[in-house]
Input
Amino acid sequence: MSMGAIDVALIPSDVLEVCRRLQGAGFEAYLVGGGVRDLVLGRPPKDFDVATSAHPEKVMELFGHRFAIPTGLAHGTVTVITREAPAGHPVEVTTYRSEGVYLDGRRPSSVTFGERLEDDLARRDFTMNAIAFDPLAGRLVDPYGGRADLAARLVRAVGNPIERFEEDGLRPMRAVRQATQLGFEIHAPTLQAIPATLTSFRKVSAERVRDELMKILVSPSPARGLELLRETALLGAIVPELLEGVGCAQNRFHRYDVWGHTMVTLANADSDGVLRLGALLHDVGKPRSRQPREGAPGEYTFFQHEHLGAEMAATICQRLKLANHERDSVRLLVANHMFYYTPEWTDGSVRRFVKRVGQAALPLLLALREADVVGRGFGEPRSKETEELRRRIDEVASADAALSVRDLAIGGKEVMEALGCPPGRLVGRILDRLLERVLDDPGLNERQRLLALVPETADELRASPS
Output
């Protein structure tokens, strides 16, 4: 990878103005962190951080309380809201600092504001993130060889990797994530330090781990990231259930063991975060449900592994502090990924399938099945099991058929009026039963026809209250 000159044109004018204001007041001001890394790589930075010799109260005074937000004064950070709104940028301005020992695997016990940029860069995680750039003078400061490591496509810790990882327990996972996103290798001593610092990693909050995991999953090479997590023992501290699939043989229908199949499926899933998490966990229940296949030595069956896997996936998502709707979506994908479509399905069967899965999750489930087919490892067309089903679903959708209770021509109010009954569970059960009939015969979904069915449906349900 060749490293050309930094293109200052990639830096917005309002960010330059922040540096200009600080330097005009007699302070140093450098762009630092991931933004500089992106500039060196020739990519437009996603965000801009400034390191300065100005103490935080001076930054507040210089930009004024209208534009300067004291987001982390104790650690020297002020967020400057640039004046060119709404296209302006929130710029984190942080005073040069050195740090005391880390006691909790995340925060230093003390912070000392300093005057030297080099001391500030020494506390950073990786050499690629320890490069500073003065955009006004065009001066690059790179005391740890970050530019050379970028050219060599290496993730290397600044200084002693064990010390860096013990300072912030998330840094080992960040090393994996950076390598995965950029397609880099992890420098051997940095890689070897990861298993040695798992104690610090285990102190990290589930939310921070989840955020890094999701970034790995939506990267261009998620399977490589998961392999790195496994090889460094991080995976055992995050989702140990997945390790049960390593070496877990399957049967003649699968070329790979459960872990290998999962990795190929993950690599072939579209880059939606929920879909890729579903792909990662879709067979998590297989090792615990595995039974010898009768009459086929060395082969196994996995009866109802999708249901066990759905419960395991829900537990994993809860442990990772995913939002409830994300957890429910992943659970649904895992629970339903074993559907088996045949041309003999009636239109009613297709409608019931759509109803069970839900129209919102349907594209993700079909995409998961297609990746799952590729994951079997025999070169089958990915749409082998979904092409005709997609066509059938489109036909059902174009027919404007009712696929949920709210699509019915009547609602709970009309049911209560027809029966002269109060709100209650019976009303909902009647609507569900009417929907079942409409799924088979969409022509029933007319107000008068449904109202005519309400009394007999109520009698049937009262006769079988279960």
About this structure: The longest strand covers residues 90-95.
